[in-house]
Predict the structure.
Amino acid sequence: MISSIERTATWAPTLGAVPTKGGAQFTVWAPAADRVDVVFKHPGYSRTRALERLPNDCFTAWEPDVAHGTRYVFRVNGDREYPDPASRFQPDGVHGPSMFVDPHRFEWTDDGWRGAVRENLVVYELHVGAFTPEGTFAGVRSRLEYLASLGVTAIELMPIAEAAGRRNWGYDGVDLFAPSHHYGEPDDLRLLVDAAHRHGLAVMLDVVYNHLGPDGAYLSAFSPLYFTDRHASPWGLGVNLDGEGREQVRAFLIENALHWIAEYHVDGLRLDATHTLVDESATHFLGELSDRVRAASHRPVILIAEDERNLAAIVEPRPRGYGLDGVWADDFHHQVRRAVAGDSEAYFADFTGSARDLAATIRQGWFYTGQKTARTGEARGTDATGIDLRRMVICLQNHDQVGNRALGDRLHHAIDLGVYRAISALLLCAPETPLLFMGQEWVATSPFLFFTDHVEEIGRLVTEGRRSEFSGFSAFADEGARSRIPDPQDPATFEASRLAWDEMSSPAHAGVLRLYRALIALRRERLDRADRDVLAVEALDEHTIGLLRGTFAIVVRVAGAGRVPLDPLLDRARPSNYGVVLTTEDQAFAADGRTPRVIRLASGSIEIEFDAPAAIVLDLS
């Protein structure tokens, strides 16, 4: 058996309660403190030990015979007691004592796992609490066979760090090293990862390094240098990555990333809102994080940024860029939603949804490469020429694009099912990396709403803020309409967001699920093996997009009927043969589908006749 810590090459934990031979080392950075004690609060083990100050302003002490499960706190200046900033578990929540966790106790069975492969990623994003009726790590584990049969290659868990309350999206985490006790114990997360690897699935975590939640955040009690007023963020003070104390702040965050990789065997991290991580250092934090992760791991680890800037440097190799493996490229989502649902307010105003612009978005990885936006008149984006399109992560739905709608409605709630099937083919046949959001593969009826469980005063502010942020939208311009926006604090809001697994067996849901399985298999077995030097993306008419991937032509019509020539896509080549691989209107996927027809002209040209929105895949070899 390979232990969790031995699987990293050049890293060992230094912060928090670290198991050692015969005991544990307790370490915390507290530059503003004169004294720090570790206070044990465990039945039969109640004692206090003073920590020694080190030159780097960390306080540390070794304690013998500390057993797994021992509760403890840090006492600062002989006064207040706080959880460990690097606590591995908070069994009683954000305000309770920390628990000493020995990761070596867990017996891993994934020695043969070689890590995630960026080149064939199909990512499935889920919220642990809403994904299953159990709402736990064990609940997710019980659905791994389903996820493997779907064909996805990685599951991405929305943030799991301990946050206040029983219900939260995860972006209010305050104990960044501690998996939420509402989802299970640390070993329950390890069991999930271990089982996922047996099913051939990578596991990625969404981590939040740009802010802490509003309740239970005690970092500043140990050091005021974690945050800075030199840089603002949407949540208040910015994280201090380039000022006094930056070395320890950066080390804390990087240790967090490495601990998930080493102690839990996770295969990748999705880095939340990296555009808010302002860093004027010579080496940007993201570059240092990338370097440290590569140096410390024996197996591939995937780092993906959520970043709204369309910044090519994020995925350019070190030292020219930040060296990450991927970046969320939401322009695709915005173009598609504008095209098929007509959304035109807020950031959708910057997109036309035209076939021409959608084709450019797919061809380039994102639409904005330096043009000025309609809303701000400011330039956005950079040229991504030469960057592997698989580094761009695209979606039709994700937690933001569904949950940050006032009513949490999904794209398939707003459009005809035939259109949804067609754009699902566009997503899964595009050269970029596709991301699915839980339930979209069977057109889940449940919304995904914004939900929280804060104390009364914070909760009231959250509810008021949530409703006021939609005042600029025409549908919610009057107060009466806004009052109907579900209250994030109401337990019913969370319950409504849970997936209803029993609906999968009904015909309409089952047909779309079969389509998703077929499209993912097509991607894996044929499109991903196609000649990557043969790639074309064209607008074939105002409602139709054509993609050429090697010898495969994918034609997607998003509105109305029409007859579409393939000459612009094939550069007037005349393939001698063709075969229909599938259409999204095949009877297996749509009981009343109107299947597009292939017409071969006397000239040798090929045209597709559509009676309604659909997609068709042709093999031209």
Notes: The first strand starts at residue 16 and ends at 20. The two ends are 48 Å apart (CA to CA).
